[in-house]
Structures are given as structure tokens and as C-alpha cells.
């Protein structure tokens, strides 16, 4: 017996670090691991963050972000990639250039999941205001699937979503902007008794509905959903199958979330390994 295995599926997260460990690249790596996928990182920013908020942000130089992408793509190979916190327009432009060079994103062989992170759930900014236009022009057209929450939808499209019809309008707007698929998450829909996410591929809508758990501990939920979709794409799933899987996965993660510190605790992808 040699003990030598074949290289597992690989996924790259281009994201910020959350020192509290609940969101950002820490959530992505946990989720990749729970899917048997080798996770790699291109770090965009280091946040000073805990369960009550973000106390500081240090951006990584754009060239260093791009070099991290080139380095792992050139040697290890990337089965699928996702973006999270990108911090600035300069970093977004550097990421877009590097993605093209290494063949990641719509029109290239390797799928890209765009989680257009704009702020933490405490309301602390994670993206410069003037960087929104760069997300629209540089990254939405490269997205195999874009996964905004309702606040991000409002920032990107100007649409104030109040119901499923609004989710449809937002999905149409993002596909028109160039995304191949749009997944409009419904976690922030006021008064809803279920949690409905809506997927649109430019022709058909798919409603992904599930229970709404009564918990405030959903830190990292958007990251974890997008990372689960990315992991499944890296394993060879189609977009509809990867998204359907992601929705079932995040439901269990929310159900298994836990309190942490004095504020908001994280969702947990570890149910998959525990049971
Ligand atoms: N309380 C909840 N119970 C079950 N699922 C939830 C809950 N809150 C959010 N979700 C799910 O978690 C994912 C992330 O949701 P959302 O809160 O809309 O985005 P974000 O975490 O990016 O702000 C979505 O799939 C959503 O349906
Ligand atoms: C470094 C970093 N990246 C992303 C986030 C967003 O996390 P959260 O506030 O929990 O929002 P969702 O992951 O649920 O979209 C963050 N706080 N820090």
C-alpha cells in the first residue's frame, strides 16, 4: 500500500479574512473541506472582526491578489472559483485581469461564482462605494452565477425587492447585465415564513424554497452557500444541481448554527462531517 491518492477536486476563493472565523475565506475553506474539495485562497483583505462587528480593514495590494490567483492556477489548477469580499475597484480590476489570464469565468472553462459582498451583516462596509460599478462591469459579465442578498441586489440594480416578483425582476436585471445565472437569495425578505431563493438562467426561473429557522446566528451564511455551490461545480455538477445542493446544504448549516462571543454566531458546515 503506497498511501498516495489522486489530486482531489480543487476550488479557489478570492476573499477577505474574518479574524472571528465565521465568514470570509475561513467559512469558504471549511465548506470546501466538508465537500472533500481542496481549498485555495487569494486573500484580498484582512479584516479585524469579531461577533459584534468589523473594527478594521487592511487591503492586500492588487498585484499580490492577482499573483495568488496566477500562482495556484498555474501549478495546482482550479476546478471552480468564487469571489467574496473584494474591498476596492483596484482589486476588482486586478482580479478580472487575472481570471481572464488563467481561464476562469463565463466564456472560459472554469466556472466563477460571484458573491457580491458589500457589507457585513452588522452593516460595516466591506466594499468601497465607488467599487460597485466595477462589480457591475468587470465581474457580473464574468459570473457563471451571481448570488446577491437583497441589500446587494438594491446596490447593484436599484431594485427594492419585497416579494418573489421583485426577486424575478432583480434576476432578469442581473442576467441582462451579463451574468449567466442569477440566484436571488431571500433570507432578508421581511415577513416571509419560508426562505425562498430564486434561480434564473435567462429563460427559466427555479424556486428553491425551504424552512426559515428562528435564529439570529447566520454569520457567514451567504459565503457558505456560495462556497457549497462552488465546491459542487468543482466536483463537476451543473449549475442547477450545484445551486439546489447549496440550498439544501445551507439549510442544515443554519439549523446547526451556534452562538459565539457577545454578538452573532456563525452557520456551521460541520454537520456534514459530524453526522
Ligand atoms: N433563518 C434562516 N433559515 C433558513 N435559511 C436561511 C435563513 N436565513 C438565511 N437563510 C438562507 O441562507 C442563505 C443566505 O441567505 P441571505 O441571508 O439571503 O444572504 P446573506 O447571508 O448573503 O445576507 C440563503 O440560501 C437563505 O435562503
Ligand atoms: C471577510 C468577510 N467576508 C464576508 C463577510 C460577510 O459575511 P456576513 O456578514 O455574515 O454576510 P454573509 O456571509 O451572510 O453574506 C464578512 N463579514 N467578512
UniProtKB/TrEMBL annotation:
Every Pyridoxamine kinase/Phosphomethylpyrimidine kinase domain range: 18-267
Catalysed reactions, semicolon-separated: 4-amino-2-methyl-5-(phosphooxymethyl)pyrimidine + ATP = 4-amino-2-methyl-5-(diphosphooxymethyl)pyrimidine + ADP; 4-amino-5-hydroxymethyl-2-methylpyrimidine + ATP = 4-amino-2-methyl-5-(phosphooxymethyl)pyrimidine + ADP + H(+)
UniProt pathway annotation: Cofactor biosynthesis; thiamine diphosphate biosynthesis; 4-amino-2-methyl-5-diphosphomethylpyrimidine from 5-amino-1-(5-phospho-D-ribosyl)imidazole: step 3/3
GO MF annotation list: ATP binding; hydroxymethylpyrimidine kinase activity; phosphomethylpyrimidine kinase activity
Origin superkingdom: Bacteria
Enzyme class: transferase
Pfam families from the UniProt entry: Phos_pyr_kin (PF08543)
Any one of the GO BP annotations: thiamine diphosphate biosynthetic process
GO cellular component: cytosol
EC number per UniProt: 2.7.1.49, 2.7.4.7
Keywords: ATP-binding, Kinase, Nucleotide-binding, Thiamine biosynthesis, Transferase
Function: Catalyzes the phosphorylation of hydroxymethylpyrimidine phosphate (HMP-P) to HMP-PP, and of HMP to HMP-P.
The protein's name: Bifunctional hydroxymethylpyrimidine kinase/phosphomethylpyrimidine kinase
Species annotation: Haloechinothrix aidingensis
